[in-house]
Amino acid sequence: MAAEQDPEALEALAAARPLLTDLYQATMALGYWRAGRAREQAEFELFFRGCPFGGAFALAAGLRDCVRFLRAFRLRDADVQFLASVLPPDTDPAFFEYLRAVDCSDVTVRALPEGSLAFPGVPLLQVGGPLLVVQLLETPLLCLVSYASLIATNAARLRLIAGPKKRLLEMGLRRAQGPDGGLTASTYSYLGGFDGSSNVLAGQLRGVPVAGTLAHSFITSFLGTEVPPDPMLAPAAGQGPRVDLAARVEAWLDRVCAHLGRGVQEPHRGERAAFVAYALAFPRAFQGLLDTYSVQRFQMPWLESISIAVSNNIGEEELARLAQEGSEVNVIGIGTSVVTCPRQPSLGCVYKLVSVGGQPRMKLTEDPEKQTLPGSKAAFRLLRADGSPLLDVLQLAEEQPPQAGRELRVWPRGAQEAWTVKPARVEPLLRLWVQRGQLCEPLPSLAESRAFAQLSLSHLSPDHKRLEQPAPYPVALSDKLRALVASLLAGGSS
Amino acid sequence: MAAEQDPEALEALAAARPLLTDLYQATMALGYWRAGRAREQAEFELFFRGCPFGGAFALAAGLRDCVRFLRAFRLRDADVQFLASVLPPDTDPAFFEYLRAVDCSDVTVRALPEGSLAFPGVPLLQVGGPLLVVQLLETPLLCLVSYASLIATNAARLRLIAGPKKRLLEMGLRRAQGPDGGLTASTYSYLGGFDGSSNVLAGQLRGVPVAGTLAHSFITSFLGTEVPPDPMLAPAAGQGPRVDLAARVEAWLDRVCAHLGRGVQEPHRGERAAFVAYALAFPRAFQGLLDTYSVQRFQMPWLESISIAVSNNIGEEELARLAQEGSEVNVIGIGTSVVTCPRQPSLGCVYKLVSVGGQPRMKLTEDPEKQTLPGSKAAFRLLRADGSPLLDVLQLAEEQPPQAGRELRVWPRGAQEAWTVKPARVEPLLRLWVQRGQLCEPLPSLAESRAFAQLSLSHLSPDHKRLEQPAPYPVALSDKLRALVASLLAGGSS
């Protein structure tokens, strides 16, 4: 089978499983179809309501996975048969015939580029198309975007703490929430600013740089009585006779122990044999492994050039300590705390209907936190002269974009009064990626998105970038959007 | 392609990705191979060090996924090529030839049956086979067991709180850590005691009962001006003329509003239209949807028979409130708090080498918490006369099993003194599932494991089952195992 030979094809197939959804998407699809509304043109927005981890920013991620999912979206025979088995037995068979033909060839997606700064209420994705189809997409798109963005944001925070020079490696596959949780974490922690991952599959499928050396089981497996089949090693320069590394280590042991004032029996024999075995396998990339890191400093200049890597339950606090000036640690492996995001393990994105048949829709609710913003919208980032973002403005799609150097009245969410702002620059936020099922422009590579994320973050003001108790970044409505909200609220309560 | 037509085959292919591992497994494999030790017989144990969520028990889960992974484990050409691209360029090509032939045909697995009560230090899995192969399995097995067991345990706690009668549904796919995080969560929350899931793929691939009705977007999509193409509904009994449901609803509206003392304009038109549309699609399974649940009680007997389902940020505390006697809620949908396990998002299982070539191995470390228990072991649960577990005992594989009615001296971990116990019954804990690559007995179905989990929990004493500040369940060592630990500790420090 071709898929067995091609991990990427397999991955694409496995990722594009249209039944990875909540059953109520299928029951609603039936409801729309029965009401004759399956093909009505609808638009949903995917956004989050609050930034994760007590911060004031998030990074948008997951678009590439969404696009791949959409393009392959098609219910196979077995999928339709399964749905028929869980929907009421008296369901009209014509509905299932309809489902067999459903795909995303009429779906249009606008989105923040991956790696963009994202703020509450600003759509990460706008998804337009036939009501039945775009409803079916809700759960998989939420699943693909929320965790990817959460991980990218978490990684970006850790990178901000570590500073630009430390090498940060994600090593959390074994702690991840399922195999794909691990793959997603490795991919998007790289996007968020890590340097690489221990996860080989993320290297193979996503091009994430992979890294790894050895674990304690390797040490434990050696007693010191093992005889390497070939203890000889050629000089690194390629010239000269091969040397017996195992014998050389024994010969040096006396001298080193004397120098350190230790007994020659003190170093554990199994440990020594393991390090020799590792050096024989990796003559140019030796790495020792200590269980507990408490270095004694000796006066040996070559010790200065040794690269020290640590990993063990490292979270934001511990990382801050390691990142302090003067720390000799230069590679930091992080597992659980980057992969599972223990401080907030889900981003809580939502996917809300904003228009049907060109008419704005809004969820009316007693809880103002849960009110949605109606209508097909555009979003812009207003920038100061120094390039730092001032605020994001949401407006109706048909409105004129804000203009650089021109005064503008906007209504920041949560504020009682309007603000008048004069942006030095204006950036449209949402790009058209998929139009009626067709990709409009190539998606940036993962490495490009990673660079874009670091660039975006570098422009964000320290007030918003601060990790604890930051100033919230303002997201505002245009006059017209605010008026639409008010009129729908008034209409809804009549 | 066949896989396109068969979701299970596709799933199996996608799950069995041997590169879903940490790179250091591959570097260690090279180290073992270079040292001539690839085929040495080794045994690893997979266990956790502390029960999750502040409780005193966990449920073992994930074995089925592990067995599937092992049986399909094989490095494809593309996998070996990728490894060659990330290992040093001067690596002996014979190593990669060796990897091409690696599979699990010499691997043996003993394990707790899925749904078993599991306690700290007792192996969930014992994995024996050639050193190189069983080392490569570390990360995928940890990834497959840890999260599955965490979710099953979390679900079991929620079931204990809810009591046996409430219907508990997992609805967290959109909050899951990646698509497979969702699939794993749906599968193992069912094993842990939930009644079903909203996740359709879990139904299709794992046989989890699926459930779902409608979301707010369905309501929001209706204005009330829509005309259903066919508003007629046949009587449920199948006899008599069809009725115009939409007209019937309008006709009843006056009477109901008068009865409730409300104005006839008060119910929202769009909401009414949505409910009519839903009832037309699901005439035998109508479900209304309210945004905020604050029922006013009216004197109408038929209201008593209505099933009320709730879902919104329900964690352990909120569930306890809903589970109280007299609550009218009988179906409870839980998302984030079951799926992401926010209180402790990873179980932290470890996979430790316990023997090589029949010789016991032990990790020597300054941190007694991280010490491992050496040697190939057997594990037994000692039971009281009422069938409740008294303690688990770990002993060397060659020792005689404890016997019912016979006094036994054991050393509970963490205690200073030996205990003498006389079990009424003795259960061996670890079963042989895979012998040299062959499945020895059929794995229980998911539903069987679910029933076994509930049965196991029903026997656990309330002291250990209590969710907050429970009494720790004792895990003890035999005399001989304790002596082995002592002798290796003494040898290691010499």
From TrEMBL, chains A, B:
Its GO CC terms?
cytosol
| Gene Ontology biological process terms from the UniProt entry | NAD+ biosynthetic process via the salvage pathway
List locations, semicolon-separated: Cytoplasm, Cytosol
Indicate the segments forming the Nicotinate phosphoribosyltransferase N-terminal domain, all copies: 19-146
PTMs? Transiently phosphorylated on a His residue during the reaction cycle. Phosphorylation strongly increases the affinity for substrates and increases the rate of nicotinate D-ribonucleotide production. Dephosphorylation regenerates the low-affinity form of the enzyme, leading to product release.
Tell me the route in metabolism or biology where this protein functions.
Cofactor biosynthesis; NAD(+) biosynthesis; nicotinate D-ribonucleotide from nicotinate: step 1/1
Where does it mainly reside?
Answer: cytoplasm
The protein's matches in NCBIfam families, at most eight in alphabetical order, are given as: NAPRTase_put
Provide the protein name.
Nicotinate phosphoribosyltransferase
Q: What organism is this sequence from?
A: Enhydra lutris kenyoni (northern sea otter)
